[in-house]
């Protein structure tokens, strides 16, 4: 893509607040000066916001105040004025009912803060799963120069001689407890060993995936995704990002210049190559909506289909982000895509150059971590998009995390009406289920849960786990943690709480899954399905007030990114009125 930098010097947006001798200008400057800022910092230089999702209640982002200081070094050094501000920080590990319910709230906060404040550009400091997409969504809707710096992954976990990854080993240990192979005391002992340092989950979970998506989109400096949170080079990345944003402001290099269709196709292919989280599907669709691109589930299927998964990281593979970093990180993967003809090489990045320029000279330092294509974890690693009478608007499955033998399967449905029903019955030794059955979980979509919880990889019944069986076909309208695995059909749409076909599946119905044919079929007649749907009534009442009510009424389906309908699109940076 060719990009022509704006002329410099020129009058910047921040001068609408700080320029001149009007009452308003003095008001704006005077109050800022109570922080001890010298007068010449308001002389027309770039004023750069640092949008920080730091919070002690978002443990994955708890070190971001330190990184913000490093960003400030870079901004000052390049001749800008840094101003840090907080936004709502949705934490995957501590927020109820789901962090996803608050992704859009965070994105609204970011959008309104960036637009309403006296800044010319913004550095987006994110780490935990929802914070990266939320910040990019908000920034895209304003379209001022913006750049991501990630918090970076935690160091590797270790437990009794075994390397353990965030989330993934939690699911494994939890199943081992339920199968009687691990005591509860051992389970508790494992918890501290999984989280040894600041940072985000160290598997290729959603946080690592979204950091990789930001880099593949061109919205972060090359190499940003994999540097461990506590590695000194993470601070260097923050410092360099601070320097770079000042030049981006001068050039007027905006998200709309970078987040193009080609950039999203690069990101989709990158997601397949890294074995990334299914959550990336929803987040990228929502981000594309913010820049006015008509990205669809079909684009996900089309672009990802021929891309092998070559990153050998948990949950699909064996290693963790620390090894990925030492192997060369995401630039090596992007280079491989380019060499295979699977990359839009001239996609623009925050560097002002092309994505290919960033990666063409990198090397792979560990072929056990970034595999040769002949040893790919999955030949077709892209997210499979399934359609059929059970998912008219689509559903997704991650082939690299699934069991090959189950990718074509016909089985008897065992239905759980909601997550409480599942929890109440799953441990019942009399539950009528065997390993050939298809577990169906309803009412866990955006409206149903609410927020579309990560419960789609529902644990198997203990009596099946005791047989040594670790995977069954599972179908729901929920999401799945990026750290999870299994033959799990997710995001089934329309969701049960909106009266989609999933709502009328009954225990005993036969269900057919055929991933190769991209088919998800409920084996009942069209007439029977129509009659059941006509009889359907909602199980839950809509919340009467508060954010939950707004969320229920305005959230869209996962096939368009589960954004709010009124937030789609870019509304620009114009504010209009003065504050006084
Ligand atoms: Fe925050 Fe995994 S829970 S990154």
From TrEMBL:
Nucleus as UniProt keyword: no
Domain Dihydroxy-acid/6-phosphogluconate dehydratase N-terminal: 45-357
EC number: 4.2.1.9
GO MF term set: dihydroxy-acid dehydratase activity; iron-sulfur cluster binding; metal ion binding
Dihydroxy-acid/6-phosphogluconate dehydratase C-terminal domain sequence ranges: 368-562
Keywords of this entry: Iron, Iron-sulfur, Lyase, Metal-binding
EC top class named in words: lyase
UniProt similarity note: Belongs to the IlvD/Edd family.
Stored PANTHER family: HYPOTHETICAL DIHYDROXY-ACID DEHYDRATASE (EUROFUNG)-RELATED, HYPOTHETICAL DIHYDROXYACID DEHYDRATASE (EUROFUNG)-RELATED
Name of the protein described by the UniProt record: Dihydroxy-acid dehydratase
Organism listed in the record: Limimaricola cinnabarinus
Organism classification: Bacteria, Pseudomonadati, Pseudomonadota, Alphaproteobacteria, Rhodobacterales
